[in-house]
Structures are given as C-alpha cells and as structure tokens.
Write a structure and sequence with these properties.
5-stranded antiparallel beta sheet, single chain
C-alpha cells in the first residue's frame, strides 16, 4: 500500500510540474521579450529599446512610454519566426491534452475504472508531456542560436544586433518542467499498478466464492 501511495504521489507531482511548465510556456509565448536591444558600442546610451517576440514588437522610450505593435502579415515574417510559432503552439496543445489525460488517468480521480485502461491513459499522458516539452524546447533554442550568430557576425551592424530576452529563459525553464513532469508520470509504474488492482479484485472474488461454497457445504 505504501508503494502505491508513493507512486500516486509521484504521479501527482509530475502533473503539477507539467501544469506549471505549461503555464510558463504560455507566458513566454505571449511575451515580446525573445530578443532585446544589445547595448554595445554606440548603443550604450540610446533613446529607445526594442523588444521583439513571436507575435509583436515593442519600443520602450527613454521617458518610460511603451508602444507595441502586432506583426502585420504572417507571410512577410521570417521562416524561422513562422516555424517557431507553429512548433510552440503545437507543443502547448499537446501539453494541454496531456494534462487533461493525466487527470482522467490519475489515481486520485474516478473518471475511469481502475485497471489497465486507466494505466494506459496515464502512460500516454506522460509521453505527451515529454513530447510537448521537447517541442517547447525547440523555438527558444533556435531563436537563441540566431541571436548569438547575428551578435558575433561582422556583417550585422551594431544597431541591428540583439541579445537574449527573458522570455527565452522562461521558455527553457517551462520546457524542462514539462519534460520532468512527463518523466515522473511515466515513471509512476501505472501498468504494474493496474495489474495489481486486477489481481486484487480476482483474489477478492475467488475468496468470496470459496467462502460461499464453504457455507453451502456446511449447510448441507
């Protein structure tokens, strides 16, 4: 019983970590802080700061005023940005489906009867969380590679060079939580738990049948 309780606690911990990672990935996807102005050379003192994200870009004036603008045309955007959008959105959708499946297949819920079917749902939820974490890991890594390459490229002028924004680090952390959460859900031994439940029910049924037969013989 203690091993089952420990395994259930491990599954709950994985779901909680996955939920926190999913929320963090949504926040990082919405924030326009994927690339920020690099203060180098003559840009050490500047009148405005540029913030660039997946969906919009913002300009922060030295007076504190900020103006944001959503990208006008999706087709006019670089292919890197379009692919990052698609991959991150797919990762978020898969993670959402995984979280719902983890609730259905969770040991603390009664959406499904205990058994191998519930165990398979929990295992699939953990696998989807891992896949969602891997997908959420690709866009920030891709963007970081592009930013670092442009930063050290002599062909890019100083005014167009950017640095890594806070949203990239947030997305990396969210992806790590999704991976860890999915791994914990998969490692909670759902198949053995389901088999143990089935064996327990069979043993209880056989015991009741034997007891009933014994009583009938004694009555005769």
């Amino acid at each position: 019983m203690s091993s089952l309780a420990m395994s259930a606690g491990l599954q709950m911990l994985g779901v909680v970590l996955g939920l926190v990672g999913w929320i963090g990935a949504i926040v990082s996807c919405a924030l326009p802080l994927w690339r920020v102005t690099a203060f180098i050379g003559s840009n050490i003192v500047t009148a405005q700061i540029m913030w660039e994200g997946l969906w919009m870009s913002c300009v922060v004036q030295s007076t504190g005023q900020m103006q944001c603008k959503v990208y006008d045309s999706m087709l006019a955007l670089p292919q890197e940005l379009q692919a990052s959008r698609a991959i991150l959105v797919i990762g978020l959708l898969l993670s959402a489906i995984a979280l719902l499946a983890s609730l259905v297949g969770g040991r603390c819920t009664t959406c499904l009867a205990e058994g191998s079917g519930k165990a398979r749902v929990a295992t699939a939820a953990g696998a989807l969380l891992v896949i969602g974490g891997l997908l959420c890991l690709i866009p920030p890594s891709w963007s970081a590679h592009r930013v670092i390459s442009d930063f050290y490229s002599p062909l890019v002028v100083q005014g167009q060079k950017r640095e890594l924004g806070a949203a990239l680090f947030l997305c990396w952390g969210a992806a790590a939580l999704l991976l860890i959460g999915g791994g914990l859900v998969c490692a909670s031994c759902p198949h053995r738990y389901g088999a143990a439940q089935v064996r327990g029910r069979r043993y209880k049924l056989n015991s009741e049948q034997s007891s009933a037969q014994t009583k009938s013989i004694a009555y005769v």
